[in-house]
């Protein structure tokens, strides 16, 4: 798997010239170098890593360029730290729903211990282990700022200022991800607001926290920091939380946050933000003056494509990159875009899925194998990105969904029916927790009798969503779902209740 290297290590000590599926190695180290590879990947997050894994498995010489930490946003400022913060919160909430255990967990969470465990899961923001993994698959890592420099060319400016030019025989893959998008409020930069990065990496618990936004980052971080001891105020411009899910998802999460002590205000915009003597002062459109120690803006994402040389290949800097189903950028046969940058699904698991598709497609094209372009379920088509994207929001209760909501299905022109059940009708839910509160909905296509979407809201439902993903992605007919018998008494028995409700309507 390679040797451990200190943070900041620059892996540029070799020139590798690709010849077919082999490489010839010579020593070289100059201020300017040109090195040839089969594939060059911009970005060493989980998406870029998975592209490299697939291309290396196919025998293609692969270089990976990273300007920050190998492992990317997910490992250090998103998925891993946020879930490490949330897991004790959810475990405590579940425990308090069980007599006999409730009495043992009445005290507050040990915030220092929770933050220490979060630090462990980020490797204290060191990427030695991730570098070892890249070494283990035989990919070459270049630390520095990578930019396209024309067709099949990438320049890397290293920490020492040296510039290396990498050329790609077959493909360049953009996997640079996205960044938090801040609103254009005057003076906001001087306030030094939190984004998702600060919210997942803070080493202290703010006494008061304002959260601006109502999406996944906003609701998860409000859940975590309220439980860790902050007094949280959530300001949502729209009508409710989690607006891209079924309406009841946001309603149940807002109810739970309020019960936990958070102040959730919908239909509220922030007009101005200042920091006065260390205190954040936010003024709303209603004229309310709110004070806090920190303010988190979770108001959207922007592609990290503003300074990667898109203009050198005729593309607009800072833009999302449109792709076909093999993740190839529209109109450029050698350029691919995987993960957030193509704006198809801003989720780590979908980005990794796309990476596998792109890696397979690059390998097939490099070897001259024709792609099954007309096969929507072939090895080289990211079909699930269109209609079967799963997502879990790790709040209390959890909200999990795949496919289309009822409103989205109707807007798409499908003749559908929404089928709802309360988890109170499921024996396994009652055993899971006293007073288990939650709801499930499946969106049934009445013409094809398949599922267009499924949503679960309730404690622990994140572990249910893959069954729904299989049903939606596989277009399993309702008549066959009857024969997928859920074990008794589990929460999964909600599937039987949903099918019965559909039959009886």
UniProtKB/TrEMBL annotation:
Gene Ontology BP term (one): 2-oxoglutarate metabolic process
SUPFAM superfamilies to which the protein is assigned, alphabetical: FAD/NAD(P)-binding domain, FAD/NAD-linked reductases, dimerisation (C-terminal) domain
Binding residues for FAD: 83, 146, 176-178, 340
Domain of life: Bacteria
Cysteine pairs bridged by disulfides in the record: 74-79
Sorted UniProt keywords: FAD, Flavoprotein, NAD, Nucleotide-binding
GO molecular function: dihydrolipoyl dehydrogenase (NADH) activity; flavin adenine dinucleotide binding
Cofactor: FAD
UniProt: NAD(+) binding residues: 213-220, 300
Cofactor note: Binds 1 FAD per subunit.
Domain Pyridine nucleotide-disulphide oxidoreductase dimerisation residues, every copy: 389-495
Family named by the database record: Belongs to the class-I pyridine nucleotide-disulfide oxidoreductase family.
UniProt xrefs under PANTHER family: DIHYDROLIPOYL DEHYDROGENASE, MITOCHONDRIAL, DISULFIDE OXIDOREDUCTASE
Protein name per UniProt: Oxidoreductase
Source species: Streptomyces brasiliensis
